[in-house]
Every structure is written in structure tokens, then in C-alpha cells.
Amino acid sequence: MTFLKWIGGKSQLLPELSELFPDMNNIKGYIEPFLGGGSVFFYLMKNFNDSLSKKNIYLSDANPELINCYKVVRDNLDGLLPLLEKHQERHCEDYYYKVRDSYFSTSSHIERAGAFIYLNKTCFNGLWRLNKDGRPNAAIGNKEKMDIYNKDIFGLSLLLKSVRLGTMSFEKILDIKNIEDYLVYMDPPYYNVDKKGNFTRYTSDDFHISKRLLVQKVFKELDRLGCKVMLSNSDSPIIQKEFKDFNIKILKAKRIVNSDGKNRGYVYEVVVMNYQEHKRQMTIEEAWG
Predict the structure, then answer these.
(1) What are the backbone angles phi and psi of residue 233, rounded to the nearest 5°?
(2) Which of 47, 87, 92, 160 has its C-alpha lying 20 to 30 A from 280's C-alpha?
(3) What global pTM score does this model have?
(4) How many angstroms separate the Cα of 24 from the Cα of each of 5, 27, 71, 207, 217?
(5) Euclidean distance between CA atoms 190 and 25, whole angstroms
(6) How far is residue 260's CA from residue 257's CA, in Å, rounded to a whole number?
């Protein structure tokens, strides 16, 4: 569960990913430099809280509005909730475009976070898209009254309390000191397999080939530093070639971001690890159903 919708979010893949995480008792901390909707982080914190709660956790993203939203959910939930209730009550097509088009007119961190969540929940497929001027331009998706948030946001806020949040490019995680035996999960914009309508713009800059190659370089440097590294990407020959020296698993995921419903369906993704996967043992409750 997360308080945002996010393109490429891993919620549907968590059952498969859960068997690929290393033993959380043997890691010293956690780093996630492409935070997005945060579904992997929240899953880990909910299921391995005893192992992670007292360890250093670094979450970052290049999108400053996204990180501001996380900080407000963590630190100012009491101020945020009335704004979300206001957006929920006033939601309609005209109100959506008014909020979207005036997004950068306020300097209030709390108001921006409220607008961010509102737009995220009501725009087309949760798409955070910026035009060439760096302003949000996603069309409205849901015109009906809907729940902008639910009670889960209280628990998610608590899980963020001890976390370090930062706005930065992913390679900056290499500046973090003493990260040997940390788990690093990397979920960059995916390599475009079919060249048709693939979404790569999360900030005002495109994720060019140079950055994809930089992801590979950072992965290998983290491996050299002694980190346990997991990376998600599209299943393509070029990605498999770039990471051929590491452990690669193929998973099936459902594609939902396409304006033409006929082109939505299942696609294959790869998970690259520099360690052998850890098979999670079932709990007594799971074993007995």
C-alpha cells in the first residue's frame, strides 16, 4: 500500500520480488534512489520492520515535488489532511484544471503536497508529466468524486519518521559513507523496448541513453563497494547484455499506461541482482492458510 499512484510501481510484483530480497537480518541499511510511489520501501518496512526500523534508510528521487510530498506526509500530516479533504470535496473537471494550472503559484510546501496528491489520484493513470516549461500537464482521468486518501496514510507516515529523504540524481548515492552491506533497490525509467509511447519523463529532463549507462556504472560500483544491489528494468537483449555478469530473473507484469486499452496487457521485466536470491520462508499463518 502507498498513498500515491505511480507509473511503473511495483505493487503487483511484490509477491515475486519478496522471494528475491536478501536476508534483511544481514543488511546494515537500505537505499532507494528512484523512489516513485514507494511501494517496495513500504512493503519492506511493513514486513521486516524489526530488522529495518533501527537501521539507516535513504530514499531519494530527482523529482523535488515528489520528495516534498513525502516530507509533508512524514512531518506535517495534521496540516495536510484538511487540504486533501478540501480537494476531495471540490473535485470536478474545472477544479482539477484550476489546481493543475496554478500548481506552482504557491510556495507553501504543505499546499504543494496536497495538490500533488490530489492531481496524482485524479489525473490519467497517476501520470506526473511536465511540459517543456516544467509545469504539470497531465489530463484529468477520473472526473467522479473519489477518495483522495484513506486511513492507511497514518501508518505510512509513521513508517517514514526515521527515514532520510533527499532530492538528487541517483548517482549521488555513491557519496553516502560506509554503505557496505546495505541493500540498494534501483527502479529507473525503463529501457524502451517497442519505441511506441514509452513513458520516460519523470522530471523536466529526459532519461537519455547516457543516464541508462550511468545506472549500469553505479550498479557495478555499488557491487564493488560491497552492497547488495537489486535493479528492475524491461526485459530486452540490451539490458540483459549490460548486466550479463549478474543474477537475472524474469518476471511478468501488467502494463496499464496506454491510451489505447487494446495495447494494455502483460509485459516481461527483469530483476538484476548481484547476489543469489533469498527464498522467503512461509509463516505459520501462511502455511496453514
Answers:
(1) -165, 175
(2) 160
(3) 0.88
(4) 27, 5, 25, 31, 25
(5) 30
(6) 9
